[in-house]
Records
---
Amino acid sequence: MGRVAIVTGGTRGIGEAICKRLQRQGHTVIANYAGNDDKARAFTEATGIPARKWDVGDHEACIAGCAAVEAEFGPVDIVVNNAGITRDGTMHKMSFDDWNDVMRVNLGGCFNMAKATFPGMRERGWGRIVNIGSINGQAGQYGQVNYAAAKSGIHGFTKALAQEGAKFGVTVNAIAPGYIDTDMVAAVPPAVLEKIVAKIPVGRLGMAEEIARGVAFLTSENGGFVTGSTMSINGGQHMY
Ligand code: CAA
């Protein structure tokens, strides 16, 4: 059955792959994005998936953005909180803004999107929320106290909200990707990335589509008994 799905950060990278996969599953998909208008336009032209611009770190913008989507497309039954940023740096170089921006977008975005959509799912008795965490939220990562804290927070957020949603047919799960071949990972200095890839047992970076397949399962009717879980998709880099 086709549902209305919002994927945040949906026009690029992992989010783009998730949008395309959910569209192939028969859902009406709306891609949220925050910055790159040109890329969003090209994405919509190529896929037919509408893109809507708001900052997931902005609470009021999320409430208004989701209300506009619901008015145009109908009740939102699936939310994939994928939007995320990095501001990497070692502690002695990391500014408060680097910390705050990452917490605000990566973790705050999950709260804001859930606040806008979870009550409706709860009332209708069906919903799927998938939060994109990270291997670095599970294992930590040198130079990422902000990102690791936010992603780790996502895993706690997921388990708490899953307990609230369970009796209303709303599942809440996380996926913890490892290093995936995206612009975000391409920004890691090549010498550092080479050492990271050398530690991945499967011997390569992951592909965005490999995360999208996990989302497809967790958002499906068949995923109804899976809630509060974290699916690690990381090529064996961290077994948790
Ligand atoms: N463990 C121990 N020491 C490390 C280290 C590590 N993992 N990485 C770097 N260091 C050491 C270096 O060896 C160096 O030490 P020396 O001066 O004694 O040689 C020191 O730290 C400084 O390293 P850099 O020269 O790299 O310092 P920098 O300030 O230029 O950069 C950094 C620091 C920003 C953390 C950089 O190393 C970096 O970008 N690292 C990658 C961080 C990372 O993995 N980010 C993931 C982005 S992708 C993502 O987040 C998606 C996802 O979910 C997986």
---
Amino acid sequence: MTNRYAVVLAAGQGTRMKSKLYKVLHPVCGKPMVQHVVDQLNTLDLQELITVVGFGAEKVQEQLGEDSHYVIQEEQLGTGHAVLQADDILADKEGTTVVVCGDTPLLTGETLQKLLDHHDAQGAKATVLTAHAEDPHGYGRVIRGGNGQVERIVEQKDASEEEQAIQEINTGTYCFDNAMLFDALKNVSNDNVQGEYYLPDVVEILKGQGETISAYQTPEFSESLGVNDRVALSKAEKLMKQRINEQHMRNGVTLVDPEQTYIGPDVTIGRDVVIYPGSVLEGKTTIEDDALIGPHSTITNSHVGSETTIKQSVAADSKIGSRVQIGPFAHIRPQSSLGDDVKVGNFVEVKKASFGDGSKASHLSYIGDAEVGSGVNIGCGTITVNYDGENKHLTTIEDDAFIGCNSNLIAPVTVGKGAYVAAGSTINQDVPSEALSIARSRQTNKEGYASKMKSIKKD
Ligand code: UD1
Ligand code: CA
């Protein structure tokens, strides 16, 4: 098999976004555009993937990490100049190079594979991925000769009126014979309206050398959407959302209102899960069968077990077991772990805490930096006092303990197995197993006090 390489163009600033965030880092369904592109490319069998970075180089590298190699384009002199920055790494290699823009987030690995297959089948030296656009404004247009063969690509700003009427556009995605690409790039000039070195000019140069040039027209225009401004960004978001949501519905997930349901590209969801509107599932979240999510719940990088319900709540970076009930209005903060059959009810905040199976904090509590055993009942208004102003401390509540309402557990502290803490206690010493701890002032009743008060007022 021929060797395959890929170059991702991601050095531009994205002036038209009018943003301090570099264009290719703008998220679509929660994932930066350039990450979408690289993830799709990585479904192909590639020897090398190189991203050309410039504006925001560090941030782009931080995002992609080891998914890519990098070359720097110091000055943004055009897409042709950008590819040329990979010359040192690629120029002497035999094989096929795919070039993709970092601002086409909807492009799929399947379409890239079809493009490569077409390129190979045609024995072409360059193949352009094209699409038919209802409104081609802003894209490069594909100029075909009398015999239907691709001759060249003309940019919007350089196109004559006649050329502007052409609806077949350059998606900015190509396959090239690698050696020929880098030879031809050296002959690209910047003699055009924008004064830039255009990558698409390679097509005309190779054509002039008598090489076979081909085009593969994808039927899915939406895949080729190039995001140059925030209007296009919102279109990309909508299309991506629709693609993701339809796939989940086909796989057996009920989305009560798909228009109002936001699921990231790396989320996995089991069968017969029901998701109510206003829910946002982000990052590497997994939801197991028969769970019920929403309305209005946000779950980020978390695992949710089967038959669990999460209503009007937020959970991040946590592991939640099966048959757990969360909410309404609960907050599960990072590094929490809830066992099976746990209940975290309204206005309960859990942070960096573990709950064993069957434990409950049903109302109005803060449980942070805590290890809670199984079968524990945490009464309404319980607070783990975890912070002394400098350090955080651990509260341990062992199996089957019962914490009465409105208790403060001043950490570090342990409530032993099966122990009781009386309501209203402020606990700052360990409670032994099976003990009852009462830590509040005694009640005194002053008999007849009310009438005494009233008679004083009269005088
Ligand atoms: C480009 C194509 C156009 C095509 C469209 C598809 C050129 C000259 N034009 O136009 O034919 O229809 O994409 O979306 O290629 N970049 C660099 N360095 C540079 C310039 C750009 O890395 O010096 C990167 C940008 O970050 C971006 C990508 O290349 O990710 C495309 O650049 P952009 O300016 O968006 O090109 P378009 O005008 O959209
Ligand atoms: Ca673009």
